Amino acid sequence: MKFPFAALSCLWIAASACGGSGEPKGNPEGTPPRRAVVNPDDPDACSECHAQIVGEWKESMHARAHHDNDPIFAAVRQIATGALGDEVAGDCANCHTPRDAANPDSPAGKLGVSCASCHMLDAVHPGKSGAEALGFADVVRMRAGHDMAEGSSPAHQTGLAPEFIKDRKTVCLACHAAAANPSGVNTCATGAEFEVRKGEEKGCMDCHMPRIPGPGGIVGSRSEHARHVFLGPHRAWYHDDGEFLSTAVSLEGTLGETGLKVTLNNKTGHGFPTGFPGRVAMLSAVGKDAAGAEVWRNEDSPESVFNKVYVDEAGKPTLPVLSKSMSRDNRLEPSESRTLEFEVPQTVATVELKLELRLVSTKAVAKLGLEGKLEAQPRTVASATIAR
Ligand code: HEC
Ligand code: HEC
Ligand code: HEC
Ligand code: HEC
Ligand code: HEC
Question: What is residue 285's predicted lDDT score, i.e. its pLDDT?
Answer without folding.
Answer: 98
